[in-house]
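Shape matters. As here.
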Amino acid sequence: MKRTPFKPPSDGLSGSSSVKGGGAKLRSSGFKPKSGSAAKPRSRSPKGDSAAKNKLLSPWEQQREAARRSALNALKRARRSAEKAGISLSDWEGEFLDSVGERVREHGRAFADPEKGAPGQALSAMQGRKLKEITAKAKGEPRRFGRRPGRAPEREADE
């Protein structure tokens, strides 16, 4: 929206049309500042004062926050797509989504052992894999994880 500068209405009778002069009398807007309060300059941030309160995060912390948000969104999407498709999740799967979501919200990550996942990630490798399996089940995709049924592992013959 384009803003134009304020121009007071001219009544045509007075020769001077200056804002400070004695031209047309302007109406009061009715706004009166509280007495005793110092005039605070307005924040130039579109979000108001909240943007000024946020401290700057290091790139490492920004990456961790992004991973946290991403994991929480993936958990919500998996549950929502299962409900939307009418597929009922098993008790274990529902409990898995709840507990992992709770741990990510509380601690920022869902696993304690750093060897189980990449640094800065919110889910371990196996948690990510299980989440993908639940999401695939919710979407109705055929199962492609794990071993293929009916195939025995190939072994070398010692002849």
In short: The chain has a mean pLDDT of 76. Residues 59-85 form the longest helix (27 residues). The radius of gyration is 31 Å.
